[in-house]
Amino acid sequence: MIQLGDQLRINKFYKKAATKAKWGVLVTQPQGPWTSLLGYSESLKTELYTFIDLATKKMHAAVTVSDTGTMANRMVTIKKDPSFDLLKTFWVNLDDKTKRELLVVDSRKLIDYVENKYVNKVKEDFGKCVSVANNLRWRYWKCHICSQVYYCFTDCQRHILDNHVQKFVPDPSARPKCVDKVLADMICCGKWEPVNTVAAANLIKDRAKHGEEFVYVNGWCSDWPEAKDEERSKILKQFAQVLKSSCGNENDTLSCTLWDSLIYYTERNLQLLEVPGSYLDKCSFFKNPQCICFLDLKHLEHILNYFRQLTTDVRASLVPKVVNRFWENSRVKETIGIERLTSNLLLDGRLLCEEEHHFDDTGSVETFKSSGIYEHVIPEGDKMVSWVLDCPEIDEKLVSQMGEGVHNFEIWLAALRIVRGMVRKKESYYDKRHRMVTYDKMLGEAETICNREDNRKNVNQRSTYASALRMKCEELVVIQDDDTKCFLNVVRDVLERAPSPKYEVLTDKEYMESISGLSTAVQNDIVIKSLWKLRKFLTKKFHLIDSKILLNEFTQGELHEFPKLSAIEYRMVVLPFVKKFLQGKLKKMIMKTKEDDFRLQFLRIILADEEDKLRVGVV
């Protein structure tokens, strides 16, 4: 977790690491026969406390990636470089031919530069990254499970998802229904302002008295008096945003059952004194989303928190953000070609121009007969100087990871585990929903049997509900199928007055013994009450499981982009070395110039840098 926090600059990982370590401290105290491990326990606790301190310090000191590393921030740093203005002036005075020649990087001299300045491991890994003559690709995609290599993201993504992620395709008819487009449009187009319920109640009574109705346009009526309530308005705006984000074109996670539960909650908790319910039904009051704007602050806060839990998965949604962040950091705008005979690197000709570059996501290597490809390039501005100086220190760890083809390996595996976990969850959610649907169906069968007894014309032929249910069980027990098992389960739960479905798997004999023993003692009113409780519980659970399924499927779809972490981009290694090489080349050109002013200014800058380094060393 601490390593992830270091790589991503995200406080959440440091916080989680500290929490895990604190939990570890609580469970490391040996008890009973394990007291012999006391020495080991103390050592482990010391290590955990070290982790807690480290995570806490990093958490307070961390700066998020979004705050650093932007092009604007880097340009400010570059412009503070004392040599920037000098190089800029020197560049402007160079002729076009010399500028074009700088785009041709002598591969032999570049390799000599790396060999003279860096340790053997860096040289070895750099050699792997710059040697692309065989496959002519700066970028490839690697599966970290079977080491399969691809030169197309789609092919790599398909391979990983097809071969290394468990497949589960549910029956389309089993998928929970989302709110339709009509309701989604109503939700998205409304103002979502709080309504003054006292004034609204008086308005309703007045219109009901005169036989007038409220006219709704796309779910909203402009006649309702707005309340001057900043707190309610703030909560409503947040709630509206949650709803809108759950029923957009790309994110259909608002289930019909969850919406129905919201309207039911609103109907139960809305207080409109002396307002006839029949009038509200007549004007379709509760069929329009504006009815939610009538709720008071307490109930609005409740539904906001509840809906946030059901429509957002903070942990899983973090992964796509991390993936996209790493992907953006690995994208390169500059192409690099190769001169056939010399293997010299030919930099992107657009570097001499002021035009904006687009990302080169293919990473293919073009080969050219000679450097004559730059003859048509007319240098403009000093963008090349900024590009050359925009170079952090060489990251030896990154060079090693790219050279060995294991860049982002740990995060890739973590993302794969999360994706696999999402698939397992999806399967378990659908299995649970199937059991609930079957239970709901059998609950309806039990209610029908009870109603049938009430409808018998001959009172003497009527049986108690419990007896009628028992006789139906005796009739069905010879049929060995899932529906029969579920019906026996339902009847047993009803007669036992179970507060919720048990979904137990028993033998037919065990079911019938329980049902037969209870059927003689349970009165009709108890059966009715038990059926009602089970139905109520099931209704509540349906919108929970439906929301989980829809959120899981949406998040899983977002996570399918995680193979982007498979990218191995050699230019991320090669370009920093090229920039360092060109910096040295430009400085040598300044020292060789006949202009004394340039040489003197440059020498002063070098001396000032050396004095700063010595001063820091003394301190």
| Mean pLDDT across every amino acid position | 84
Shape: elongated
Task: Give the spatial strand order of the biggest sheet.
Answer: 1-5-4-6
How far apart the termini lie comes to 34 Å
β-sheet strand percentage: under 5%
Number of helices: 25
Helix percent band: 55-70%
What integer value in Å does the Rg equal? 35 Å
Oligomer: single chain
What order do the helices and strands come in, and which of them pair?
Blueprint: H1 2-8, H2 11-27, H3 38-61, H4 71-80, H5 82-93, H6 96-101, E1 104-105, H7 107-117, H8 120-130, E2 139-142, E3 149-150, H9 153-164, H10 181-189, H11 197-210, H12 230-246, H13 256-269, H14 277-282, H15 297-311, H16 314-330, E4 336-339, E5 345-347, E6 367-368, H17 383-389, H18 396-404, H19 409-454, H20 465-476, H21 482-495, H22 508-519, H23 524-559, E7 567-569, H24 571-592, H25 596-618
Parallel strand pairs: 4-6
Antiparallel strand pairs: 1-5, 2-3, 2-7, 4-5
